[in-house]
Amino acid sequence: MSRLSISVTLALVLGIALVMAVLNLALPEGAALHVPTYAVSLAGKYLSYAMLAVAVDLVWGFAGILSLGHAAFFALGGYAMGMYLMRQIGTRGVYGNALLPDFMVFLNWKSLPWYWHGFDNAGFAILMVLVVPGLLALVFGWLAFRSRVTGVYLSIITQALTYALLLAFFRNDMGFGGNNGLTDFKDMFAIPLHADATRSGLMVATAVLLCAELLVARYVVTSRFGKVLIAVRDTESRTRFLGYRPEAYKLFVFVLSAVMAGIGGALYVPQVGIINPGEFSPANSIEAVIWVAVGGRGTLVGAVLGAVLVNFGKTILTGALPELWLFALGALFILVTLLLPGGILGLLSRRRARPAPTTPATEPAE
Amino acid sequence: MILLRILLLLLALAPALARAEDDPFAGLAGSYDDISNAVAALAVSGNAQAEPAIAALQAGRLFVAPDNSLWIKRDGGAVNARTGAPGEPPGALKPVRQNNAVRRATEAAMGSLTLFSADPAVRAKAAAAIFEQRDTAAIPALDRALAKETNPAIRTAMQQARAAALLSGNAASEADRLAAVEVLRARGDMAASNLLESLSGQPKAVAAAAATAEASIARMQQMWSLAQGVFYGLSLGSVLLLAAAGLAITFGVMGVINMAHGEMVMLGAYTTFVVQQAMQTYLPSLFGASLIVAIPLAFIVSGVVGIAIERLLIRFLYGRPLETLLATWGLSLTLQQAVRSIFGASNRDVSTPGWMSGADQFGGITITYNRLSIIVFAALVMAALMAVLRYTPLGLQMRAVTQNRRMAAAMGIRTPWIDALTFGLGSGVAGMAGVALSQIDNVSPNLGQGYIIDSFMVVVFGGVGNLWGTVVSALMLGIVNKFLEPLAGAVLAKILVLVLLILFIQRKPRGLFPLKGRAVEA
Fold it and tell me: What CATH number should be reported for the domain whose range is B226-354+363-521?
């Protein structure tokens, strides 16, 4: 993850985003170089996935925490944004109720639940996008790292966490729209959401925030703090014996990563137009991990590359040959782990690519 | 004793009551009140023609001729209701009119008439109907029926019906009522409790007895519902156990994170489907045994697939648990899609053989046979698994390899082959679980996904590498889940259990029964 590759990535992400936005807005529909709005939204979706991937890479690639529940933070950020967007609908819902969102009217609720208060305010909603995933990560991470739950055990309980959230958000009486989730958004910051300019603007904003995230992540991992983090990843007990407190390092990076994932989710929702409990499904979290693995674990840039490439492939395959997508994804998992442990970036770099293993290679559990 | 004496007394009275009406049929041609009274009288008259006449009235086939004679219209013509002889009605027929009072009376009358049916099931049903309706008029009929009844279960039902009727009327003496309360207390279910609660205008002693009886029934009910909860919990626990048993081998003993474990279960369920289809076509006479046939086949199918997975994929990833996790997840997606492509995405119909359907009542708990079979099956599978590990040469070599690979290799054990067989055994057990789960869950490509997280939680909770720990944790989780369900609802109960488990693992990362010694440090 050289300075060069980061700069190239930042330039590419921002450049492509800006060019797409300009081509979408400046050229009339039907012009040869016109970029249709759906492509702009699609690009925005990929970029918000890339934010999730960077978050996963930060914990997996640099702290050795294979989180199989990161999509939960993504979805929580998305729900916080979705709640704000729901409040923006106001009286334009099907029931025209100024006080309650449609699904609450449908469920015969009389008043707004307490946790919906404040979401009329954009500032509060944005704060919640950061605070809710961060807080969950703080509590969960504090419990897990303090008692030294590591490796696959941690992976399995993160998966159980997102699974529990999935079940919870499916319930109607949670007050988050149950099965259908939150949708039918109209405005964002009082700007109509479906206008071409809004779409392009959101996409560019996602690109900018993704670049900011990359820079923050790079700053963290190249700092002194990051060096200790990598030491924790490679030999946690040795680092502890040297007098460091691995749990504190892991907790910080876990919370940071959760907040990053939450921002990704918050940008994902207005561009996709819906957030539902399906986003919590464990499969989503594991897919995010494979994006990172495809691009190259522990490289940050690889996470962006992997997220965009895999999702681009998914869009094409599910459109053309829907039967084949799961085969392709499954094969991707197997081939990347067996044959391409360094991901695409590992293949590209001349030196013998082999990311530092999480645990020193040992024989199967003895 | 008191009860018997009352019964004898009532038996002596019964014929007298029956004689009171000279011609019970006469009223049927009169007003609504007359009809209701006539029906009630007919019901206790013992007249052979009473039943067909009242049944015809209920069906709207009873008619009155201008001369007040009664006729039952059948498909081929008319029958005289009094004599049962076919004949030609004199003049135009008018239907016997019915209002709600008449309908109630006919219903009650049919209840007491069927008390004398030759079919025990019909008699039992009749007694239950009277219990529901608390029809005082049915007491004489009940007494006569009781005198003839030999089946003890139906006798009890009749006595209960009689007690219910007696308490609801106002003719009986205090001693009779107390005896009746006692009968109801012995019945001990919700219906009896409701009946006791609804009593009013009883003598003081009876009211007090009823209150005591009610409380005692409530206690009994609580005990029974506790027992029922334990049964449901055991049944859920054995489902979890079955799903987790294979994982206890592959993950617990070998340390391989197999995310495709659920798909081994799914393959077992689809094997059951294929076996049933084949047997339906070629051996329909043995269809009842299809599950028994499917069990070894599912073991072989999943086991062979498991061995193939170990040889082709997992052995390259030993010592890299996180990579194993990702690769086997990819495998699970591939297997799901393969099954979806072959069998279609919709649920497949796996039928339940006759001997597994139905239920039995043991005291206050209902035991359905399919749940019971799964509990028994889970116990058998675990026993077989432990026996294989403990008493067979293969099991000995497996334990040797997992405890000290190098030493085992030095003793001449082909460790790679044992790895493959161990993995095959775990997968095969998952396949057998699939046979059982096909009976209670939808057989779809997603079947396995629903169990994978639960299975891992069970194994981790019980302590990795410890089969007994897996048993205890599966049953515990099942029972806790079932007891939380009435308090919090099914979904919330599951969430609570997951959260509790997450918290538990934080406190005891190595499960309930951690392995001790050097093996832990590997």
Answer: 1.10.3470
